[in-house]
Every structure is written in C-alpha cells, then in structure tokens.
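> @MW can you paste both from yesterday?
MW: sure, first one:
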Amino acid sequence: MARVRLEHVTKTFGSGGGEVRAVDDVSLDIADHEFMILLGPSGCGKSTLLRMIAGLETPTSGDVFIDERRVNDVLPKERDVAMVFQSYALYPHKTVAANIEFPLKARGVGKAERAEQGRQAAAMLGLDTLLDRKPGQLSGGQRQRVALARAIVRHPAVFCMDEPLSNLDAKMRSETRAELVELHHRLNSTFVYVTHDQVEAMTMGTQVAVLSDGRLQQVGTPQEVYAAPATAFVAQFIGTPPMNVLPPGVLGGDSVRVGFRPEDARLVSPTAPDDGTTLPVTVRLVEQLGHEVLVFVDCDGARLVVRQPAGSGVPAIADPVRLSVGEGVRHHFDATTGERVG
C-alpha cells in the first residue's frame, strides 16, 4: 500500500516581514496506486509540496502521512520514496549501469544482485543497449530514462517527480509521457508528479490537484477539472486554449463573470439579432492550424478565442462579427472571489 495523505500542511520561508508562505493549509488525500498531478504556475508551491512528501523539506505546520505513518520526522531514505528531478542528477563519470545501480550499492546490495536488478529496470525503459555508455553520450530523453530507471530499481512505494520532462523537446516529451503512463500501469506504486504543463496533467494523471499562490484550488479527474472548474483561475489554467472568462456584467449580472470554452462558442453575422446570447466583437487574429482554426476577438476590452473546424467560413482580421454563447455552455464565477456559482 502507498497512500499519501497531507493534513493542513503549511510551509513558510523567512521570518517577520520577509516571511513567504509557499504552501498554505493544504489537505490532500492521494490513494494507493494513484497518478496524482500537482499542477500550477511557477511559484504556486507545487514543488515545495512534493519535497515535503519526499522529506526534503519539513512542514512548518500540519502532517504528512505515508501508509498511515506520520513521516514529518522520518528521514527521506526511510520513507520508501524515490525522487526524479528535472535536472536528471546523473553521475557524469559513471556508466548508465552504474548510475542505475547506485541506490542499491548505497544500501549494500551485492554486486551480482544489483547488476541483475539494474538490467531489469533498464529493460523496462529500453536502455538495454546503453548500459556501458556515460551520460554525456546520451540524448536528453535517454538521460531522463536513466534517471527513471534509477528510481525504479529501488521498488519504492511512492515516486515523486519534479517536472521531469521540462528539459525535453516537444516530440520527446510526448513519447516520454506515454512511457510514464505505461510505467505507472506496470508498477505497483503511487506517482506524485509536479508540472506547470496542463497538457501533461490532462493526458497523464488519474487525479489532478490545481494550486495557486500556495493554496489548493481543486482536486478531481482531468475531465472533472476541465468540465466543471471550481474557480475562475482553474478555468483559465486548464485547457488549450483556456476558457474565456468575460468581465463582470457581460452576459450576466455585475456580481458574476461568465465563462465558456472556445469550442462552445461560434461566430455569426454582425447583423444577427441580439437575443441575449450574442455579443458584438471584432476579429483581431486568425490562426490556421490545419485541423482547426482559432479566431481571436476583442469584446469590451477582453481578448477571447473561438475554436472552429477547418473548412468553415473564417472572418478576416478587423471584421465586426457577433459571438454566440448559448445558455447551456456557460460557467458562472463570483466576480469577487472567483469561485464557481453555477
């Protein structure tokens, strides 16, 4: 079992007037064998939260549990947790095999046994033919797989991963995402994965926890977070392009901000009747993406985007049109707090 539970965890740095609250009263329950994504912009506290699970940071207040065991005062090496860093953190003078086997060597495992376990971990990630190479002879994607194999060889209960794909190019990120999902299915472990990339969150996680300014905004499956964002922040952070959120008073009362996904709106003739579901807008940019078209428009000073299928009629830049947003596709957020109200 590898359940991870955080109860009212807070982490502050500094003191007095210079105190910074990196994590603010976060409670989170990560089930056994979950692939939990900690998602948010830079500086939101997600890496600090991960480091507290791994034991690299100590909570200022609150408790961290792994398998019902309170681990606040337990050393990282005794938590049965493996950490995969953004920077790979490989030993440049050691071979791939030696890098993978190093955690076992540190534990005093015999040479023959750790070599066999290292080969098994390498085989899981397609590194069989690279065992005699040094990290400097590998591509970025191969080095990241070595770092993953080094974590796998320990057979930890929990994998903590801090933006491990951010140094890879787009093609390699896509391939490695798929490898990580397959790896999660093969291993009987819990994954806690930090990223600012919402595409990674939507395609990899079984659960997503969205953070902003150190506070937990929402926890749910990727589809739940996408379909029913709990706050305007979540709505505008999840999705590519993100949800459009109108200024207060537009398509709703002054106390409400109305949001809608780019695919849920459509552009109609500027002479279309105003029946309460359309808004006058001006086209500012058109992006032809082959399979679809993104049309960016201005509405009362707000920049909005509409997703249209390829081949549909596309207005020209500076054209006045009307934006149609049906009642059934609208999301409503409190204009002051940003919390979902409908």
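MW: second:
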Amino acid sequence: MRLKGRNKVTPEFNMSSMTDIVFLLLIFFMIASTLVSAEAIDLLLPKSSSKTTQTKSISVSVDKNVNYYIDMKKVSKDNLETQLLAKLGPTKEPIITIRSDEDVPMKHVVFIMDIANKNKIKSALAVKAK
C-alpha cells in the first residue's frame, strides 16, 4: 500500500507583498517629483529638433513682458551689458545662454546677441526639444 506524504511544499510565489512595495514606491516618487521645483523664469521656449549642449554659462533671459534677467536677477535694458560683463568677470572663455519667450520679438534677442558679439562672448540660444 502506497501512502502519500502530507507535508508537500508548494512551488508557488505570492506576489501580493511585492505589488504592495511597488505601489508604495510609486506613490513616494510621485509625491517627491511634485516637490521639486525648477528655479527659473517661466518662459515658453521655441521648439527645435537639435540638441542643446550642457555647459557652465550665465543665463540671459527675456520674458514675454520684455523684462531682461541675468540668471534670476532682473536687469534694466540700459544696464544689461555692464551687469553681464561684471557677472562674467575675467572668465577665460565666457559663454551665455540666451533664453527668450517664444512671443518676444526677435529684435530683443538680437540685442543680447549684439552685446555678446561686441564683447567676444560665445552665446547659445536655449530651445525646448520637440
């Protein structure tokens, strides 16, 4: 007579504890990502398919109300060049990033580019990727 053993181990894996952990991690990262805020001026950048290189530079921005900013500091149009040169200081290869709202007339961007060209400062135009 053949007897079957009752202490048989089942090869099943219970996924309920794993899904609880994944759910808690998902909630944590969703909450953590909403707490991160970019310290930048709210601009709608024009779109481009080319990539922007990441280099250490000073940001010169123009918002839709034609206010000029160096990094996050508001600057008048008349003092823009002197403030920019003071901020750059004796940098070996100065680089500025021009950030402009897409609704700003091009003459304001060209004004900043003219200052950069006159002072032999490399400039890059910030755009939003498509």
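> thanks! The mean pLDDT is 80.
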